[in-house]
Amino acid sequence: MNHIELGKFGEDLASKHLISKGFELLHRNYRWGKLEIDIVCLHHGKLIIVEVKTRNSFALGKPFLAVTLVKQRQIIKVANQYIVEHQRTEEIRFDVVSIVHNSKQQEIEHIVDAFYPVV
Question: In what order do the strands lie in the sheet with 106-115?
Fold first, then answer.
């Protein structure tokens, strides 16, 4: 798989994983300009914004390490737009689903409250 296919595969896998845990998916790949949120869902009355990071190995470390402060700020900007556009009033939470998938292994790690908006 090339990196685009691997990313889509990871988002599909993350979506199935979240649904199996009782999450209700609202949107996938919500775009605002050039920025994007991978998954938006509801769980226990909270609006959950999920960033999915998929790699084919641990060579560069765990995939969630790629969710840098710059990336977090971008996700928060898009989340604010999503909330305004869709008139959401729920408490918000930012999660990361970190996936390593190759022919020998598949690891899914769901990090709840992975980061917080800086006030």
Answer: 24-32, 35-43, 46-55, 91-101, 106-115
